[in-house]
Specification:
This protein is mainly alpha-helical. The chain is built from eleven helices and two strands. The protein is globular.
Length: about 210
């Protein structure tokens, strides 16, 4: 498949997902028998705080996969006995899949669910080109994100944590576009990666 075709397919995928963000229909993700809810703001913050291999490694551990699926599962429960029983069998199914010949397909399916939520991560021209500072920030990115949305829509911070991450990112873009002069939103990272690949091919003399 040519790079231009890859770009068009990825763009159509992103546009389709965006059209569903505020619709009653929610894309279904069922992995090893677990129906997954969309990743929420709170669950994303948990993964960041834990430095989950799901976010920070190309080779997620069994424990990190089980944790990710359980956090997003519709069967997630606070009932101690039921939770332990379901986690035991979830761990068993995950290990079985990771040791099978379809392990790559299994891992790809999990990352498809994760990337579905991260597609709309708000990046702008200024932030992408700014230099890192050695000093510690007084406010975390998580706190800033929750405050940004809660203030705009008169929500309690706990309500923001329960929002689907895609929606939260989409709202952040709107808020910043309205309130920040000359705010320039970058294309999604997946599209920029394809364009970068295309430029590299041109530099190498490929068609």
């Amino acid at each position: 498949m040519k790079t231009a075709e890859k770009y068009e397919l990825e763009r159509k995928r992103l546009e389709t997902n965006r059209s569903q963000d505020w619709a009653s229909y929610v894309p279904q993700f069922i992995i090893v028998g677990e129906q997954l809810e969309p990743l929420t703001v709170g669950a994303w913050f948990d993964l960041l705080a834990l430095k989950s291999p799901m976010l920070y490694s190309d080779n997620p551990t069994v424990a990190s996969v089980v944790d990710y699926l359980w956090r997003n599962s519709k069967k997630n429960t606070k009932n101690k006995l039921l939770r332990e029983w379901r986690l035991y069998w979830l761990d068993y199914r995950v290990r079985k899949e990771l040791n099978s010949e379809n392990a790559d397909i299994f891992v790809d399916a999990i990352y498809e669910h994760l990337n579905f939520s991260l597609d709309e991560y708000p990046e702008d021209m200024e932030a992408s080109s700014s230099k890192k500072k050695n000093s510690m920030s007084a406010i975390t990115g998580a706190t800033s994100m929750v405050d940004e949305i809660a203030n705009r829509y008169a929500m309690h911070p706990d309500e923001v944590l329960k929002m689907p991450l895609r929606r939260a990112f989409a709202l952040q873009k709107v808020i910043r576009k309205i309130n920040i002069p000359n705010y320039q939103i970058l294309e999604p990272a997946s599209l920029r990666a394809i364009k970068s690949q295309y430029l590299e091919e041109l530099n190498n003399g490929e068609d």
